[in-house]
Amino acid sequence: MMIKRNRFPENRSLLTSSHWGTYCVDVEDGRVTRLTNFEHDPDPSPIGPGIVDVLDGPTRITAPHARKSWLAGGPGTAGEKRGTDEFVEVSWEEVNRLVASELDRVRRVHGNQAIYAGSYGWASAGRFHHAQSQLKRFLNCIGGYTSSKNTYSFAAAEVVVPHILGTFLGHVDTTTSWDSIASDCELFVAFGGVPMKNGQISQGGTGAHVQKAGLLAAHKAGVEFVNISPLRSDLLDEIEAEWLGIRPNTDVALMLGLAHTLLVENLHDRAFLDRYTVGFDRFTAYLMGENDGVAKSADWAAKICALPVDTIRDLARRIAKSRTMISVAWALTRQDHGEQPFWAAITLASMLGQIGLPGTGIGFGYSAMNNIGLTRRRVDYASLPQGHNPVKDFIPVARVTEMLENPGGRFDYDGKSYTYPDIRLVWWAGGNPFHHHQDLNRMRRAWAKPETIIANEWCWNALAQHADIVLPCTTPLERTDLALTPKDPFQVVMDQAIEPVGQARDDHEILRGIAAELDVEEAFTEGRSPEGWQRWIWDVSCQQAARAGVELPDWETFQRQGWIKVPSPEVPTIMMRAFRTDPISNPLNTPSGKIELFSETIASFDYDDCPGHPVWMEPIEWLGRAQPDQLHMISNQPRNKLHSQLDHGSISLADRPKGVEPVMMNREDAATRNLTEGQIVQLHNERGACLAQLKVSDEIMPGVIQIATGAWLEPEGHICLRGNPNVLTLDKGTSKLAQGPIAHSCLVRIEPAQQK
Ligand SMILES: Nc1nc2c(c(=O)[nH]1)N[C@H]1C(S)=C(S)[C@@H](COP(=O)(O)OP(=O)(O)OC[C@H]3O[C@@H](n4cnc5c(=O)[nH]c(N)nc54)[C@H](O)[C@@H]3O)O[C@H]1N2
Ligand SMILES: Nc1nc2c(c(=O)[nH]1)N[C@H]1C(S)=C(S)[C@@H](COP(=O)(O)OP(=O)(O)OC[C@H]3O[C@@H](n4cnc5c(=O)[nH]c(N)nc54)[C@H](O)[C@@H]3O)O[C@H]1N2
Ligand SMILES: [Mo]
Q1: 335 Cβ partners below 8 Å, 6+ apart?
Q2: Which of 67, 177, 609, 752 is 20 to 30 A (C-alpha) from 39?
Q3: From the centroid of its chain, how far is CA 427?
Q4: Can you list the domains of the chain with their CATH numbers?
Q5: Is the C-beta atom of 123 inside 6 A of ligand 1?
Q6: Does 276 participate in catalysis according to the annotation?
Q7: What's the per-residue H, E or C state across 226-256?
Q8: Roughly what angle, to the nearest 10 degrees, separates helices 251-264 and 298-305?
């Protein structure tokens, strides 16, 4: 089948869309020379142009490859050599045959559940060429695969919050908007700050970055901000926020200390609690220490959080007398017992009684992405149908290493017990486990076990280097697509700017070739070309939009214009407004229909690490149990890229003059250790080590260091030479409830790096 390539637009610039925004593309002589800002974006992200230099060159995968020992010895050969073995270039014809026959062998001999294609990751923007959707659709045509549930972003909240508020993602989508905050909030209490660096991103694309304007408008309107974070830089300097440098992972203790003060000083809203919540009495019994003899008072909290007790008491009085927004960063879920911060925050906000009112209540992740707190009309755009997966096996996404280590082992998840399948073949498309997973040295050992590992990638990152079969895919600049997303008012045409580099193929085309070998091409494509599918997606989207009262232009008009902006509603968004107005007619989707401060359901699971109401439990690693030379490592999201994407590009590399990732440390800590600005250091613990370049700062509290995620894994033994913090982080579930990842609970030591 011929793939029909794009017609270049005549009257407008070439456009591309990415998770970090929309850009215009300049092309000369068949090469992309420049990405420039989209004129309708008031605050564009500098991340985008980082792709220009790496579209070709040594990091680009230009042909299919197979690992030498695997090719010579067949599936299962020398898995321990993954990452160090040589690669051999193979033709598309050969690789299609190899992959098809290996898939066929695995499904016949072991069954389809032996194929793991949870394949977590962000891939690229674009509704049709979404790598995982393509892969899942293809595998569903040949009998299915073991899948994964939830995300690395906020798995703990995804599982616990539905028990408390009926849904999590639904509330994230309707987080109270910035305009409502500007007009009705007085005090914005930000656990984990409002990190502007993260608001550059919006999954699936964005037209106009609005987080900064939203935050500044609220500040101008007189909203006061409290930044509760180990990092001062988690709120913009212009906001003049009060900074409470809290010990990492102790927010629950602070929330309980605040709740206790509200209770004993009778500052809580009893009427709200009675009408809209259940279980407050069970919670207060815990708060007052009726069973364990420990009152969770401000004094108690002060010792855990390393904050002055008066600060906690004053804050409790201020939040009670103000119109207050309690905001929690998603990062608070990526820690041991990461279910608790969100449950405790909801409880605290319930005691203040302002949930469902304008500008106040509870907020999940302001500026975690550009779409949080945005008033927009929700249009459900169509996507590529993935078909039906008959395989019922799954894992909570962050349990991947454990699954590979322990086939047949049992795991708990959200009230039930399951078995890890015996995985023979792993296929990753559109994600990078060597970026996102914790304890990468442990993962690499487990990674040696499957008989075959396939990766669709466009660049030679650690994932590609640790695969047996590497299928080179295109980037969005080499294909046409539609950036349609319900999370943003802008919907953008993605033009093909250049021909595919080398022999790269779109994920769809890669899978079509293999589908042909397995006699399922027709089922996979349904006879449509990529453009045929894109038109189908647009047509179905037009019908769905019409039902939501939005008229989208026809395909030709959309292509000619390049983008559209769906008008936003005039009224600000207020989370849980309907429930607040009438909880009988608009109950929450919980067993009681109310906010469950005590959940009978969760209590009935009888988990020692997640009881029926919010509790403080010591994290497995934290400063409260650290040796004097240990530091708490925060490995947060990178300012200059999205995860590991474009780590090899010019924008990311510009911040890394010595080739290693910067690590930020407090001035006092550096002085005690005789470490100096700019020095190359080694971070280490019993799990691994990585190099980094020291940045001495007053923006971070003592005892804590910060190193962004995203540096490509470059292992030399157990050391990462480039500064990937996931060689240090711990691979353990948040609790039996959600089994989420806990990257932010991690102690390390730091020393000057050995000179070579
Ligand atoms: N220590 C620590 N670790 C973390 C976090 C943390 O805070 N601390 N955060 C976690 C979070 S929130 C997340 S969401 C994860 C993110 O983890 P991932 O989403 O896995 O990270 P990305 O680097 O975005 O991986 C996307 C991959 O897809 C590839 N790709 C892009 N476009 C295409 C395409 O069209 N086709 C194909 N086949 N491939 C494509 C890219 O080259 C890249 O390798 O990381 C998690 N890991
Ligand atoms: N530029 C850029 N933006 C991104 C991404 C990216 O890779 N790059 N990734 C996107 C993705 S996938 C996601 S899920 C979101 C994630 O959004 P977040 O989860 O909000 O991101 P982080 O940067 O990990 O964390 C935010 C801040 O929380 C603070 N923090 C960490 N642990 C604690 C704690 O225990 N207590 C308190 N009070 N504060 C703590 C850290 O100082 C950190 O800077 O970001 C998105 N935005
Ligand atoms: Mo994420």
Answers
A1: 248, 249, 341, 619, 734, 742, 743, 744, 745
A2: 177
A3: 20
A4: 65-145+391-480+499-527 (3.40.50.740), 155-377+589-605 (3.40.228.10), 623-752 (2.40.40.20)
A5: yes
A6: no
A7: EEECCEHHHCCHHHCCEEECCCCCCHHHHHH
A8: 160
How many angstroms is it from 430 CA to the middle of ligand 1?
Answer: 7
The tokens for 754 are: 């050995």
Residue nearest to atom 26 of ligand 1 (CA): 431
Burial group, residue 355, by CB count within 10 angstroms (0-12, 13-18, 19+): buried
Tell me if 594 CB under 6 Å of ligand 1.
no
- Ligand 2 in contact with 249 (CB < 6 A)? yes
- Render pLDDT for 348-380 as a digit per residue (tens, 0 to 9): 999 999 999 999 999 999 999 999 999 889 899
Residue identified by tokens 């997303």 is 485
pTM value is: 0.97
**Hey, which of 435, 459, 726 would you mutate to test ligand 1's pocket, going by the most ligand atoms within 8 Å of its Cβ?**
435
Q: In terms of DSSP bridges, do strands 631-634 and 704-707 run parallel, antiparallel, or are they unpaired?
A: parallel
Q: Is 637 in the pocket of ligand 2 (CB under 6 A)?
A: yes
726-733 mean pLDDT: 98
Look up 712 and say whether it is catalytic.
no
Q: Pairing mode, if any, of strands 595-596 and 277-278?
A: parallel
- CB contact at 8 A, 722 and 660: yes
pLDDT at site 503: 98
Ligand 1 centroid, distance to 446 Cα (angstroms): 20
pLDDT digits (tens, 9 = 90+) for 128-170: 999 999 999 999 999 999 999 999 999 999 999 999 999 999 9
Residue 191, phi then psi, degrees to nearest 5: -75, 115
What distance in Å separates the CA atoms of residue 440 and residue 730, rounded to the nearest whole number?
A: 9
Confidence of residue 11 (pLDDT cuts 50, 70, 90): confident
Ligand 1 mean position to 269 CA, how many Å? 43
Mean pLDDT (whole number) for 536-561:
96
Phi and psi torsions of 575, nearest 5°: -65, 130
Catalytic annotation, pick one of 20, 116, 120, 533: 120
* 449-453-459-460 Cα dihedral, nearest 10 degrees: 40
From the candidates 20, 23, 116, 122, give the one annotated as an active-site residue.
122
Is the separation of the CB atoms in 631 and 704 below 8 Å? Answer: yes
Ligand 2 and 331: CB distance under 6 A: yes
- The answer, yes or no, to whether any atom of ligand 2 lies below 6 A from the CB of 337, is no
What percent of the chain has pLDDT above 70?
98
Whose Cα sits closest to atom 47 in ligand 2?
Answer: 198
Cα 369 to ligand 2 centroid, rounded to whole Å: 10
**Mean pLDDT taken over the chain:** 97
CA distances (Å), origin 287, targets 259, 302, 320, 346: 8, 15, 18, 15
Residue 4 has pLDDT above 50, yes or no: no
CA of 506 to the centre of ligand 3 (A): 24
The CB of 466 under 6 Å from ligand 1? The reply is no
Dihedrals phi, psi of 355, to nearest 5 degrees: -60, 135
Give the DSSP per-residue string, 666-726: EHHHHHHTT--TT-EEEEEETTEEEEEEEEEESSB-TTEEEE-S-PPP-EETTEESS--GG
